[in-house]
Amino acid sequence: MPTVYVNDKPVEIGTQKLNCVQAAELAGVEVPHYCYHPGLSVVASCRMCMVETGDLKDGKVTMIPKVFPGCQTPVKDGTVIVTGDYGKHDSKVPKLPYDPAYKPGERAKKSQADTLEGLLLNHPLDCPVCDKAGECKLQDYSYQYGRSESRLVDEKNTPPNKPHLSSKITLFTDRCILCTRCVRFTREISGTAELQVVGRGHHEEIDVFPGRPLENKLSGNVVDLCPVGALGSKDFLYTQRVWYLKNTDNVCPGCSTGCSIVTDTNKDIVYRLRARTNPDAQGYFMCDEGRWGYHYTRSTDRLTRPMAKVGGTWQPANWTQLLPKLKYAVDEAVLMSPKRVAVVLSPFLTVEEAYALGSGFKKMSDQVRLVLGPVPAVGEDDHYPKDVKGNPVQPTKFTIRAEKCPNRKGVAAVLTQLQGEVIPFESLVPEFGQLSALWFAGGYPNPEWVNDAVKAPHTPPALLVVQDFFPTKLSEAATYWLPATAAFEKEGTFVNHAGLVQTFARAAKPPVETRSELQLAFDLGNRRGLANVAAVRKDVAKAMPAFANLADVKLPTTGKRLELATV
Amino acid sequence: MPLTESDVTWVQEPKLGLLGQLYLPAIADGLMTTVGHMFKKKVTELYPEQEPKLPPNYRGVHRLNRDSEGRTKCVACYMCATACPAHCIDIVAAPAPEGWKDREKYPETFVIDELRCIYCGMCEEACPVDAIELTTLYDLTGLSREQMIFDKEKLLSVFDVTTKAGTDPVRTRSGELGPASEPPPAK
């Protein structure tokens, strides 16, 4: 087995093609870097990942008498890597037979300190007002490897800021360290190539062509990629200091790609979404629509308390009085004519919610119909990178799906399990007038998606309960209009377009008067107490073989791929 | 670490002699102290008619300092709010108004709950631009809780009052504490 030695520690690399940074990561050693990113091409321009390399052959170590950029140096069997952190290595690991005159790690450490001093020459000391402070690689590394004082006697370069770079993104030019990650991103991943480096030497700057701002559907990723505070999202600018934020691993509900994301919240308010690396779901990035699409949860139009229609007008209701009424009305409708009762489960529900609601109604009567809610589709799947004319180029590195819901596959699988078939919403719409009761568990961030599916106003069913964020044609005709919860406000499981099952935790509490869909399913289905996601998850795992490994509560955060034969 | 026997020194009270047992020298000694005070300078102050003179490092009501152009010095970095052990500082940051060439960020609102504050002075210590200072104003009163929640205008007016009265000259100058408070580069 090919073995690489990182700070004396042997690591088996198998058949992987790795560079020194990746090999060191396998050994648990961090090699500091700015320009290297596993999703982008290697340019070795920041010179921060300098390592000493050599060869172990016939029991003898031969070191190369100069330092190499770790990101650009591939490893092979017997490669010896010595990083600047050699002083901190595990002393229990037996030392390699170095030349007695060789001092491991000294050159790399010196090189990193020098690199950092060079990067900091023109970097302004505005950490107190920089949004990146607290998660800035420049801060971290200068704390670890740098020196505390600047020796620069001249005045620093202070090029003007470029807020015109994009409508969503601003550039603090003086903070930039020219790692060119953003430039490579627009060239290699989005393919739109808006960003470039202009100028030479100390006058190098990131810029766009006049009249061609950074406007593409993936532009927000350059903010995540920027290792310093140069590129800032105008949406997040100055709203929070990052050390106040609570980071929760989550799944983007924007489309059926189901990007792994990190939701940053403070006091139950979502401030920022960031992409989380997940090679199974989407890779390293996410689209702007998802990144900045969380604002609907804070919209003033959002329904935050249950409403009941009294004499043709909406009256706020309270849950303690409303729940028995709701339960009685639903029970009665099912008892009278179960065939005329339908439950719509939207593709925005989690697997647990769909299962709890569906199985609850099926328990009341097997003849109740479960219907898959309207599946919103906007345009066509959008593949990146694109060429100059906007045509997708192979190999595809990122896809924004046309299906704008996170869990159609999951809900469809639940429906197939519970009633053997998936009834589309369109087939139910003409029958609205004949229904005695319709429960619509929605949660649509865009009311138009429901309006489009309902089309012309039909005679509403006698009892219409709608759970949704915003007023729609359906909620206008409803008897009861209940608030919904967003994906950030609940725990659950989504199944993406490819059958990847991802569980996620709750990032923020929903508004006070909101009951989650799962809690409502508990209340209606006579399950007592507070909604328990883990218990439902176990039920799902037991009932549906495809979800069997959901019972394993500690799912890896990156998710598991399920082969769902049903969809 | 527990104490050992060698760490302890036992002290015995000295035995009283005949003179000590009479108590007369002790009474005379006590009277000397009393009589001595009758001829010393009086320390009683007639508050509130007579106000005390406090040392300049007294930690009273906060103020937000103004720069030479009368704008608030604060850059809304949240360092004071982060350092505050009582969580009494609430800041909302915003991009600086158009004409402010030397900074990008300023506090849209800056609120201190003076009732929550424990007057420890950590905010002053944390501030990288010397924008917040504690003054010698000590007689802080209000008729309601709301009155004791000081907003930006109120805190700036404390600056105006204390600097005009001369009780609290601005103690620190931009650039003295750290490089983050360095003056803007000359264009």
Could you please describe the fold and organization of this structure?
- Chain A: It comes from Limnoglobus roseus.
- Chain A: GO terms for molecular function: 2 iron, 2 sulfur cluster binding; 4 iron, 4 sulfur cluster binding; metal ion binding; NADH dehydrogenase (ubiquinone) activity; NADH dehydrogenase activity.
- Chain A: Its cofactor is [2Fe-2S] cluster; [4Fe-4S] cluster.
- Chain A: It holds the Pfam family Molybdop_Fe4S4.
- Chain A: Residues 245-301 form the 4Fe-4S Mo/W bis-MGD-type domain.
- The complex is a heterodimer of chains A (567) and B (187).
- By secondary structure, chain A is an alpha/beta fold.
- Chain A folds into 3 domains: 3-112, Ubiquitin-like (UB roll) (Roll), CATH 3.10.20; 118-298, Alpha-Beta Plaits (2-Layer Sandwich); 307-377 and 406-561, Rossmann fold (3-Layer(aba) Sandwich).
- Chain A is built from 14 helices and 25 strands.
- Chain A has helices at residues 20-26, 106-120, 137-144, 181-188, 221-225, 288-291, 319-336, 351-364, 408-419, 425-428, 447-454, 473-476, 517-524, 533-543, and strands spanning 3-6, 9-12, 50-57, 60-69, 79-82, 169-171, 195-198, 205-208, 231-233, 246-251, 260-266, 269-275, 307-310, 313-316, 341-345, 369-372, 382-384, 398-400, 423-424, 437-441, 463-467, 480-482, 492-495, 500-504, 560-561.
- In chain A, the strands form 7 sheets. Chain A has an 8-stranded mixed beta sheet with strand order 14-13-22-21-20-15-16-19. In chain A, strands 2-1-5-3-4 form a 5-stranded mixed beta sheet, sandwiched between helices. In chain A, strands 10-11-12 form a 3-stranded antiparallel beta sheet, with no helix packed on it.
- Chain B is an alpha+beta fold and 187 residues long.
- Chain B has 5 helices and 5 strands.
- In chain B, the strands form 2 sheets. In chain B, strands 2-3-5 form a 3-stranded antiparallel beta sheet.
- Chain B is elongated and about 90 Å long.
- Mean pLDDT of chain B is 87; it is low at 176-187.
- Classes of the chains: A alpha/beta (567), B alpha+beta (187).
- At the A-B interface, loops of A face strand 2 of B.
